[in-house]
Each structure stands twice: as C-alpha cells, then as structure tokens.
Amino acid sequence: ALQFFMCHICCSRLRCPPLRLPPVFVLLSLQDAFEVLAENYEFSEMEGPCLAFRRAASVLKSLPSAVESLRAAQDLPCLGEHTKAVMEEILRCGRSFEVEKILSDERFQTLKLFTSVFGVGPKTAEKWHRRGLRSFSEVLAEPSIHLNRMQQSGFLHYGDISRAVSKAEARAVGNIIDEAVRAITPDAMLTLTGGFRRGKEFGHDVDLIVTAAEPGREQNLLSEIIDSLKKQGILLFCEYQASTFDTTKLPSHRFEAMDHFAKCFLILRLEGSRVDEGLHSAEGDSRNWRAVRVDLVSPPADHFAFTLLGWTGSRQFERDLRRFARLERRMLLDNHALFDKTKKEFLTATTEKDIFDHLGLEYIEPWQRNA
Ligand code: DGT
Ligand code: MG
C-alpha cells in the first residue's frame, strides 16, 4: 500500500513522510485509484466497500494490458456500481474527483502517515488524529501517549523499514536464519514465503516458515532461533507469540484472523547492506547495515502445507481461494487446515498440490498468485 504514488519531490516510489512534504502526487492508474478508495474505506472500518475496491484492483491486475476505454471495461467481472462509476469518470476525464478529494483530505493523509509505522494500526492512528496530532514529532512530543515496544521500534527504525527490501537482502536474511537453524538441529527446514516466493523483486518484509521433520519437534525452535540472533547481536526487536493452535478447531472463515501457530515479528540488523544517505535515512549518516522486518512462523510438520499456502499470499489470492472453498466446495480453508463440511472431516495435505487437489483445482504456481 505504500507504493501507489510517485512523489514529485524525491522521485521515490515509496513515500517520504518523515520529511512531511506537501502532498504533490501523481495518480498512476485506475488500479491505484481503486487502492486509494479501498484504503479510505479501511480507515473508516467499512469492510464491504473496501474489499469490493480491492477485488476490482485485483481484476485489473490480472488483465494482460491496462484498460483504456469504456468498451474494454464493460465486460469485466466483479465490478459494482460505485467501481464502474469511478472507472468511467477516470476513462472519460482522466481523473476522479472522489479520489482527488481523498488524497487531499487531511485525515486520510494523517492516517496513512501514522499507519506506515510498524505497530500502528488504523485504530491507533484514528485515536491520535482525533487528539489533534498530525505529525510524528507531535506524537513523539505528546506526554500522554504511551508507545508500546513495537511502536517504539517502528519509530526508531522508521527510515530503514519503510524502505523496500530487495530479493538479495531477503536471501541474505534467509541465510542468517538458516545458519542459526542448522546450528540448533539438522532436521529443521526453512522456507522463504510471502511476496518473495511469488517472485516479487521487492517487499516490505521477509516472511519465513521454519518447521521440524516431525510434528511436535518444532516447539522450541523459534525461542532457540531468537536466542541465537540475540547472541549474534543482530536482534533489534522481537515480539514472540506462543502457539495457541488447537487441532480440533474449525478453520476460520475470516481471512483477517491471525493464525495460531507460534510466530515472531522481528527487526534484524543486516550487515553489508549499505544505506546511502538520502531522504529516507533516519540517522543522517552513512552506514554499512540496515534494519529489516522479518516474520517467522513455526507450524507443526503435518500442517506445513497449509501454512505455506496461507503465507505465500497474496492477501487477495488467499481471500479468493477461501471464498471459493466455502462457496463452491462447502469447505473451510485457513492457514492451519482444510475442513470438508459435507463429509464433516479434516482433509490432510503434505504439499500445496494436495490442497489444490482437494479443492478440485489445478495447481497454481506461486508467481501466478499475485492477485
Ligand atoms: P510484502 O511483504 O509487502 O511484499 O507482501 P506479502 O505478500 O509478503 O505480504 P505480508 O508480508 O504482509 O504477508 C505475507 C502473507 O502472509 C500474506 O500474503 C498472507 C499472510 N498473512 C500475513 N498476515 C496475515 C494475517 O493477519 N492473517 C492471515 N490470515 N494471513 C496473513
Ligand atoms: Mg512479506
């Protein structure tokens, strides 16, 4: 969501909020317009229209070329009245007044700024906005605001973690964790997932799954990895969440529900990744390291395939796949399991292909899941 606009001033695809530059943006495409509308609805907690615009953006993404005429737009699926009206206006006039109004709206700009901090969600951002706060310096100077550990780290490393992570940096992070895992046990397995598994060149974080060869043996893995990273002096932040996974619980139909496997949200110090001074540096000096956001999840081996499918994303692909399972197959799918409501049983899977087979779908390669 950070990458919609080209900032005229710093020529960055990412935003440059630390500088509080005036909102001089060029809207890039219809897809961008839909994403702005979706995000605005998300800030107002209106899930229905938010998802409708996300789905419409996803439909446009799946097309071989950009929609440039009303004729081409006519036969597209999944577009509601509101979406069509915005599309028509942009195709006719080259702009959308509704989108422009949102982009110049102070509340939208402030919520976007605040939610770009690691650990700050729409509710907190809204709360700060309602208190009259409009900038990072105002938040940080406000004595009545208590930042939790995650938010403190989010502000501290803001410059680094709002800069995109490259594939090479993701690989380097993978190697560090892999070495730590191998020193703990030879039979554990580390898998790169998230956007990088879908072939993306850049991401906002590095998502990794670590699991042991046998169910149950993964239990202490994450804590031991965290200890190892701490000893190496490269752990800048860690929030560990122990497993609350219950094998008898039915898969959740809500995509937004976080999964229950043990996981940790980290910020790691990645050496050798040069920070050239520019507009995005928080520190203001030249360094030979950068901070990188890393998510690690650790499912038991017999649930690995579901976690791999769930964490590979994209979010829209996961939403659509769950919807398909529920509406077309009477099955419940989430990051933990697949449940057949007709047979009233859990279906097992050791590979992602097993899950697609259960759903009666051909295997979809990760690079085809960029919905
Ligand atoms: P990125 O990092 O911006 O390049 O994009 P992704 O696709 O790697 O997205 P990310 O890192 O936020 O999450 C990776 C995948 O993990 C995502 O596609 C779906 C899954 N996931 C992340 N957070 C949640 C969550 O809260 N609930 C569920 N069900 N799945 C999640
Ligand atoms: Mg990711």
Automatic annotation (TrEMBL):
GO terms for cellular component: nucleus. The keyword ATP-binding does not apply. The keyword Nucleus applies. InterPro entries: DNA-dir_DNA_pol_X (IPR002054), DNA_pol-X_BS (IPR019843), DNA_pol_B_palm_palm (IPR028207), DNA_pol_lambd_fingers_domain (IPR018944), DNA_pol_lamdba_lyase_dom_sf (IPR027421), DNA_Pol_thumb_sf (IPR037160), DNA_pol_X (IPR022312), HHH_MUS81 (IPR010996). One of its GO terms (molecular function) is DNA-directed DNA polymerase activity. Pfam families: DNA_pol_B_palm, DNA_pol_B_thumb, DNA_pol_lambd_f, HHH_8. CDD domains: NT_POLXc (cd00141). Its cofactor is Mg(2+). Residues 29-370 form the DNA-directed DNA polymerase X domain. GO terms for biological process: double-strand break repair via nonhomologous end joining. This is Deoxynucleotidyltransferase, terminal. It comes from Kryptolebias marmoratus.
